[in-house]
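[retry 2/3] DNA-binding transcriptional LysR family regulator: previous attempt timed out, resubmitting with same input.
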Amino acid sequence: MMMNDATLRKIDLNLLLAFSVLMQERNVSRAAERLLLGQPGLSAALRRLREALDDELFVRVGRGLQPTPRALSIAPAIEDALSGIERAIRPQAEFDPASWQGEFRIGMCDNLESAFFGPLAARLLQLSPGARLIGIASDKRDAARRLDEGVFDFSVAMHDEPASWHIRAPLFEQVSICIYDEAQLGLKAPLSLNDFANVAHVTVSFEGNTSTGIDMALNRTGDVRQVVATVPRFSALPMVLKAMPAIATVPESIGRCMAQLHGLMLCEPPLSLPSDPVTMLYRRVDQTDGRARWFRRLFIDVANEALDASGCCVSIPRAAA
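[retry 2/3] DNA-binding transcriptional LysR family regulator: success.
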């Protein structure tokens, strides 16, 4: 006979657990001790279960209990249900990167990619040789949408205010630095504001924009700069600077990488420029996932080491993952 909804609502997990322990112990005192209940509490639970199922379930025989045919018939299904619940709520096994095989996917804009992707790939090869790292070109305009589409595990960029189902964790404040070829430009650091305003400038813009926050800062001092070229990607910038007497103002993390790789000169900007908050964006449902959390923490460890090795005076709190 099908059990109606009213009957099902009377049966909760505690009653099923009490039934299971009674089936195993066949003794009220021992069952109550295992359940950390007093005998009156267990007797009350058994009474509720008997009423709900309209069956005695257990009959006292001597000092023990004998299950009824109904109890014997439902016991296997109740054991299976309790075992399934136990498996479902059991703590997740620790993620093992050494044995895992699959992809880790990260979204980054190209300046951060230049600074962190290589060290991240190298560390991943050491710790998880069966894994593959996939870098996805991304910026704050499409990061949230592509994250929801499963394009990458997390994004590292300057993100806007996140949706309620995303987590935006602060990583570090990205400051600007000037970079140029000393042989081409003929100037030594530090640059004066007059030097900075009067040399040719190269900017980086995916959309081809030439005006940036630098122009706003110069306007406050009454100065104007001349932008002679704009490239769509940071990767093109070093060759441009090696070819002409010009200067670029870039994020410090990639500027220091460029200087080391291409023998370029770095110097602090001669005026105050705002910093950009670099953040990590990931899905709230991935917050406690073992694999995703391990990958986020790995990125933070690698990025901290890369920032320190390049000479950047910033660090990322590991709690961001």
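[retry 2/3] DNA-binding transcriptional LysR family regulator: The CA atoms of residues 19 and 46 lie 7 Å apart.
[retry 2/3] clearing retry counter.
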